[in-house]
Write a structure and sequence with these properties.
TIM Barrel; 2 domains; 8 strands; binds flavin mononucleotide
Length: 346
């Protein structure tokens, strides 16, 4: 049980054998990886696995499901991250996610925010492997797409290797064969979510040890990865890498990862290529009444370090939020970086 979702390697075999579907992933990030951001990031590589922002199971059950779950088919492969701790609620939400067409359901066992802690989900669930296992089993029993878990190395004083191994074993026994591990512990209560992404030290070796100990499971490593070289080092020990802040803040890194790791031999997708792919989507959404800024706010990290990048950001952040802003704002912002990019993307 639990391995049915593996498919024949599509990217060749690495040092760890025929893996590959999750070699490069973009992390779930609240307020960042919404449908527009994912549609934009998709343009940098067709095989990168994209994760949604966390959506709580309760919101899926009681909220506006089209708004919460809707996405564009070009986003595939795309995973829905759910937050919750009630097996029945999560199972019902996972069913809606599967029906909406997501390729995978991911359970958030890593988010350290107080709001999440009081709702008893996120990182505090690492202390309750029984409950996480019950949640996974409940979701697995109602969907055929894979159910994965994103967790940390531990939480507060619950951070020994024995704890972590017991967590993985119990959750795996419930049918989860794909773990995404943010390679640091969470410290609840004392650190803000942001500090919890920076202060507890990264301990990649502890994720590597899990891979060695459970060769039957698939492990994606996350935390602090910024470059192709970083990814390559981790892929010597793990099945995949997940980038969060770097992917969002400097999306060009995804083009480099795609060319180096997913489609070797291809020349990296350029910024102009990615924007040319995004532009028809922007036009279609504008015609439906989606504000330009809701889409272009995700582009602000582009071109960083290049001449004109600051003007690009200024034009987008000042002009895109204005009522009625149209595609010409994006064109002007691109022309500020490089008229050739503006022409190629148009
Ligand atoms: C703005 C922001 C929002 C985040 N929201 C989520 C979330 O909804 N679910 C989750 O599992 N992790 C969330 N994270 C954590 C990331 O998924 C990732 O684990 C973390 O940023 C470490 O990876 P990185 O160093 O590559 O950014 C968030 C991170 C950031 C920066």
């Amino acid at each position: 049980m639990g391995h049915e979702h593996r498919q024949p390697a599509t990217h060749g075999t690495g040092p760890l054998g025929p893996w590959g579907r999750h070699r490069v992933c973009v992390a779930p990030m609240m307020d960042c990886t919404d449908r527009h951001a994912r549609r934009f990031l998709r343009g940098f590589g067709p095989e990168i696995v994209l994760y949604s922002e966390m959506v709580t199971a309760a919101a899926v059950l009681n909220g506006d499901r089209e708004r919460l779950l809707g996405f564009d088919v070009a986003e595939h492969p795309v995973a829905l991250q759910l937050g919750g701790s009630d097996p029945e609620e999560l199972a019902a939400a996972a069913q809606f996610g599967a029906a909406a067409g997501y390729d995978e359901i991911n359970l958030n066992v890593g988010c350290p925010s107080d709001r999440v802690k009081s709702g008893r989900f996120g990182a505090c669930l690492m202390r309750e492997p029984d409950r996480v296992a019950a949640c996974v089993a409940a979701m697995r029993s109602v969907v055929t797409i894979p159910v994965s878990v994103k967790c940390r190395l531990g939480v507060d004083d619950w951070d020994s290797t024995a704890h972590l191994e017991a967590f993985v074993d119990q959750v795996a026994a419930a049918g989860c064969s794909l773990f995404i591990v943010h390679a640091r512990k969470a410290i609840l209560g004392r650190l803000s979510p942001r500090q919890n992404r920076e202060i507890p030290p990264l301990q990649y070796h502890r994720v590597h040890a899990l891979v060695t100990r459970r060769p039957d499971l698939e492990f994606i490593i996350n935390g602090g990865l910024k470059s192709v070289a970083d990814a390559q080092r981790q892929l010597e020990h793990t099945h995949g890498v997940m980038l969060g802040r770097e992917a969002y803040g400097r999306p060009e890194v995804l083009a480099a990862l795609d060319a180096a790791l997913l489609r070797p031999g291809q020349s990296p997708v350029t910024a102009a290529d990615a924007l040319a792919r995004f532009r028809p989507y922007v036009l279609a959404r504008l015609a439906e009444g989606v504000p330009l800024h809701a889409m272009t706010r995700h582009l602000l990290g582009m071109f960083s370090g290049r001449p004109g990048a600051r003007r690009f950001r200024r034009i987008l952040s000042e002009q895109a939020p204005r009522a009625g802003a149209g595609i010409d704002v994006l064109d002007r912002a691109l022309a500020a970086v490089d008229p050739a990019i503006a022409r190629a993307a148009a």
